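Input record (Table S2, row 280):
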Amino acid sequence: MKLTEIKQILSARNLQLSKSLGQNFLHDQNQLRRIAEAAELTAGDKILEIGPGLGPLTEYIAPRAAETLAIEKDGRLVEFLREKFANTPGLQLLHADALDYVKDHRQWSDWKMVSNLPYSVASPILVELAQALSPPQRIVATLQLEVAERVHAPAAAEHYGLLSLLIQLRYETRGIFKIPSTCFFPEPDVDSACITLARRTEPLLSPDLQRVFTRLVKCAFSQRRKMMLKLLKQNWPLDRLTAAFEQLGLSHQIRAERVSLEQFVQLVRLLSTIEAGTGD
Ligand code: SAM
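Output record (S-adenosylmethionine complex):
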């Protein structure tokens, strides 16, 4: 879908774009192709697309997959999409809020998510999918560049934090490429990037311990400048924490932003072992 076509559709249907719904449409064919390639589509794939807009990405995805579920919040766009894709087999168009939908639907194990996400809800959608009972096997998401950097950041990097840990517990980054603002209409005020995430073959923690991990990292990052031990002792007994910190060689003064994913995972395992060992 070219820029001229987008402008024609908007004007013919008298559609005013909504900033709050993040309606910046991608019209650069090279970037659309790169996104579709990052998904490594095969004929048997099931694809979740959040925010299809006028369908420029859907055009690339739906004919190459067995099943595509495209969820769009704007009813005016859903109406347009139903006409445009009336003869596309395997494509289901849903008029819904995708964040509510992914909160209610938690089994995505044989799905891939491929989306140019609405930036205002991109982070909560990614976290919901990563915390699903069965997360999608692959995520290819166009995001605000800063959010992509946060998802990808290793410990001690500038953008490392809660989002990095909640996503990286289940996913490894396979690639990132920047998308210039000029590739969108209207041009967004922020830089954009497409990130590819592959689900870890083996989860690092069991479902029960994943919940402890979420609680622990949220607490550890609740006040970024504060020592992690001081924050955690509000919710875990100090003697257990100090025993676990010592076993991991973590300083009592360390802040959460210096603690790696692997160390958080070990900390969760140790705290649970100590809890199990003391019979609590
Ligand atoms: N995929 C299209 C493209 O690449 O041109 C549109 C992407 S645009 C950045 C984001 C789209 O998500 C818009 O069509 C917007 O209406 C839709 N959207 C915004 N919030 C949504 C939500 N909570 N659930 C589903 N769709 C949403």
